[in-house]
Write a structure and sequence with these properties.
The complex is a heterodimer of chains A (510) and B (251). Chain A is an alpha+beta fold and 510 residues long. Chain A has helices at residues 2-24, 26-46, 65-68, 81-89, 92-102, 111-124, 144-200, 207-244, 253-275, 281-310, 318-397, 421-446, 453-459, 474-507, and strands at 51-59, 125-130, 134-141, 404-408, 464-468. In chain A, strand 2 and strand 3 (134-141) form a beta hairpin. In chain A, helix 1 crosses helix 12, helix 5 crosses helix 6 (111-124) and helix 8 packs antiparallel against helix 11 (318-397). Chain B has 251 residues and is α/β, with parallel strands linked by helices. Chain B has a 7-stranded mixed β-sheet with strand order 3-4-2-5-1-6-7, sandwiched between helices. In chain B, strand 6 (217-223), helix 9 (229-239) and strand 7 (244-250) form a beta-alpha-beta unit. In chain B, helix 3 packs across helix 4 (92-105). The chains are: A alpha+beta (510), B alpha/beta (251). Chains A and B meet through helix 13 and strand 5 of A and helix 2, helix 3, strand 6, helix 9 and strand 7 of B.
Chain lengths: 510, 251
């Protein structure tokens, strides 16, 4: 609190001292005012008028090679659009074209004059980025006509130049991709050839077929083995059956039948005798039948004995024969199955060997396949891109896909920009006051002589008894008054001159 | 009454004041002091002397404040104040005159201004006519009496001793015993009389240092914007802190 109040006190004292010094050097202050303000006004009179015009250009950030080769090739990024545009706009080629088109130099072949004009243009031109996609081209000069013409021409030339560049870029991209396509085509054909050569020199077939064959063979072996076992078992049981059967058989079948019938008839006769007498017709008939049967039995037995003696073959056992032939055929079958088993096993061995061969060549085949597939996919992709590049090129050739276009055309500058006479006119009196005050302030600040109570307090070890205010005698006051009137008159004259100059300027006299 | 004889603005006669030889008591004696006609307000303003009711109250109050401070420093008795400065035209005569004027404003006190500034005497402006004798004459000529060199001004209770005519050898006179006796005599004769010495600048002449020995209090006048801090410090060292009552910053 105390510090700030003493600081404020110091400021007030400083202002008091400054005013006093101004009064003391009043003549010089007025003179300085006159000189400074009139000098500023004079500067305003001779200060050249500046005109400025600008156009803004929209820039499409996309590079043509980028979408075409997306994922395939890394393109250099277009980092600073503004810098690129500046390079083009400031290039001597473009500026020289501007000089020639606008006829800025009478002699086009004079290189020095040309260079001077180019440098002048470059000095006035400015290119700045307005956000990411807008570029502002501006030109500042003394002649509004020239300013307008220059900025229009520069913008036109730049756009033309940019589309030409674009066209060139896209056709180059097409040529490049076309070349790449050819290269990949060659590579693909080579891979194809290699693959063909490999497959033609290798008949082993694939791994899968071999596997299927092996499993088939294995299954066959299993089945054959089971069949052999089964047949062997069957032979054994047949042989056992055969051993229980006799080679020859006796023919007693008819007489046996007669005997059974006889026994039936005898039992029936006994039953009949229970009820009937021996003279009963049924009993008589039955007795006759029994007799017939006994006779038949005897005949049959006689015949049998005769035939046994005459032909032995007719007595061979047929079951026995049948069993023997069965056994023989089964044995043949087992033999043939055994041979087949051997054959199948040797085939399996062959297949194993083939499988090993296939595994050895598999890696080679995979490599060839891979090579081929990669080449083919790239080639197909490239073909698509090539078509797109052709399309882009066509677009650019027809002027459809330009990346720069004029967003805002240049406007004819009607009013000058920058410092104008009005500014100088207003600033003149202000500076006229401020300069002497500043000089006096510096003088008071840096002059070592004591002007402040604080300075005296610091310098003397004894107390300050008092500060006597300034007291002017009436004579001094009268002199002062006359001085002030004189200086006031002078001040008014200066202001009149100042105003007169300004009015003259606006009337167009100066 | 004699003191108002010339109050109507007629030209005043500079004259040797008839000081009563025998001591009289206080106010009555002062009231009986022979006075010239009063100085008019315009004349005082022209001579830059303070007076009650003047438009510039700040100056009057400043000098009253100075008087109060000096009286406090001087104790109960009257004293000799030396007013000196650092440069020519620093306003030491202006300060001395106005100190005398404010002392004399008090009806119970008188003030005597002694002009010791041999090189730039200025107290004669308080007098209308050229004085016949002054301090240096008194110091040079044994036969002169103190009364011969004390002059009344147009201001009540304010007397002046002008510098005189023998200004070329002043410094030697000031160190004489006659000078010391003169000061002592003036001081002790009336206990209500305050002596104010106006001296040349301390930095430039030796007189001020000699006179400082004779005085009770020293006041250093520092002019606005004319001296630097080193000069002030040097002057303070020269005068010594015991006698130096303080500095006055004269704007």
């Amino acid at each position: 609190m105390n510090g700030t109040s003493s600081q404020i006190g110091y400021i007030f004292e400083f202002i008091r001292v400054l005013l006093r010094e101004m009064i003391r050097y009043k003549t010089w202050v007025i003179l300085a005012f006159a000189v400074v303000s009139l000098a500023v006004l004079g500067m305003g009179l001779v200060f050249p008028k500046k005109y400025s015009s600008s156009s803004s250009v929209f820039a499409d950030q996309q590079n043509i090679i980028k979408p075409l080769l997306e994922g395939q090739a890394a393109t250099t990024s277009v980092n600073d659009q503004g810098r690129l545009v500046r390079e083009v706009v400031m290039s001597p080629r473009l500026l020289q074209q501007v000089v020639i088109d606008l006829g800025l130099t009478p002699d086009v072949n004079n290189e020095y004059a040309m260079e001077a004009e180019v440098i002048k243009l470059r000095g006035g031109l400015n290119v700045e980025n307005m956000g990411s996609n807008f570029i502002k081209l501006s030109y500042v000069g003394n002649d509004p006509n020239l300013v307008y013409n220059v900025i229009s021409k520069v913008t036109d030339l730049f756009i033309k130049n940019a589309s030409e560049t674009k066209r060139k870029e896209s056709s180059e991209a097409f040529v490049f991709i076309d070349k790449q396509v050819k290269t990949y085509k060659g590579q693909l054909q080579e891979a194809e050839e290699r693959l063909k050569a490999f497959t033609s020199s290798n008949y082993d077939g694939s791994d899968q077929t071999v596997d299927a064959r092996i499993s088939g063979l294995r299954q066959e072996i299993e089945t054959t083995k089971l069949n052999i076992e089964e047949t062997t078992t069957r032979i054994a049981s047949l042989e056992k059956e055969l051993s229980s059967e006799s080679q020859f058989v006796e023919r007693r079948f008819r007489s046996d039948v007669y005997r059974e019938r006889l026994m039936d008839a005898q039992s029936q006769l006994a039953t009949l005798k229970l009820t009937y007498t021996d003279s009963h017709p049924d009993v008589v008939a039955l007795q006759h039948q029994i007799e017939d049967m006994q006779r038949a039995i005897r005949d049959t037995d006689n015949r049998q004995n005769q035939s046994q003696r005459g032909n032995t073959d007719s007595n061979v056992n047929p079951l026995y024969e049948r069993l023997r032939s069965d056994i023989a055929s089964q044995k043949v079958e087992v033999d043939s199955m055994r041979r087949r088993l051997e054959r199948t096993e040797s085939l399996l061995k062959d297949e194993y060997a083939r499988k090993q061969r296939i595994a050895a060549r598999e890696a080679e085949l995979a490599e060839l396949n891979r090579d081929y597939n990669v080449n083919r996919s790239i080639y197909e992709d490239m073909l698509g891109r090539k078509e797109r590049a052709r399309l882009s090129m066509t677009l650019d050739v027809e002027g459809q896909g330009v990346t720069y276009r004029i967003q805002e055309p240049p406007v004819y500058p009607l009013t000058p920009t920058g410092l104008r006479f009005m500014h100088f006119f207003l600033v003149g009196p202000v500076l006229g006051f401020l300069v002497p005050i500043a000089v006096l302030g510096l003088y008071v600040q840096f002059d070592p002589r004591i002007r402040f109570r604080g300075q005296l307090e610091a310098a003397s070890k004894v107390p300050i008894l008092g500060v006597v205010p300034h007291m002017a005698s009436p004579l001094a006051q009268r002199m002062m008054r006359s001085d002030v009137i004189l200086l006031g008159g002078f001040f008014v004259i200066i202001l009149c001159v100042y105003g007169a100059i300004a009015v003259a300027r606006y009337k167009g006299i100066l | 009454m004699e003191k108002d004889n010339f109050a109507d603005g007629k030209p005043r006669r500079s004259q040797v004041v008839d000081l009563p030889k025998q001591a009289q008591g206080g106010s009555a004696r002062i009231a009986n002091m022979a006075e010239l006609g009063r100085m008019s307000v315009e004349e005082m303003a022209e001579r830059r002397i303070v007076y009650p009711g003047m438009p510039n109250k700040a100056v009057l109050n400043t000098f009253r404040e100075l008087r109060t401070q000096l009286l406090k420093l001087g104790g109960s008795n009257n004293f000799v104040i030396m007013v000196t400065s650092l440069t020519d035209n620093a306003g030491s005569s202006f300060i001395a005159t106005n100190l005398g004027a404010v002392f004399a404003l008090d009806k119970t006190k008188t003030a005597l201004l002694i002009d010791c500034n041999l090189y730039d005497p200025s107290l004669e402006q308080l007098l209308d006519v050229e004085p016949d004798y002054g301090l240096t004459d008194y110091l040079a000529e044994e036969k002169l009496d103190v009364n011969d060199i004390i002059y009344a001004t147009g201001i009540p209770r304010l007397r002046v001793v002008p510098v005189g005519t023998h200004t070329e050898v002043g410094a030697e006179y000031f160190s004489s015993a006659r000078m010391a006796g003169f000061i002592d005599n003036l001081k002790t004769r009336y206990p209500d009389r305050y002596l104010i010495l106006d001296t040349p600048p301390i930095g430039m002449w030796a007189e001020a240092r000699i006179l400082a020995d004779l005085s009770d209090l020293v006041v250093l006048v520092v002019p606005y914007g004319r001296v630097n801090e080193a000069q002030v410090a040097a002057a303070v060292d020269t005068l010594g802190e015991d006698k130096l009552a303080g500095v006055i910053f004269n704007n």
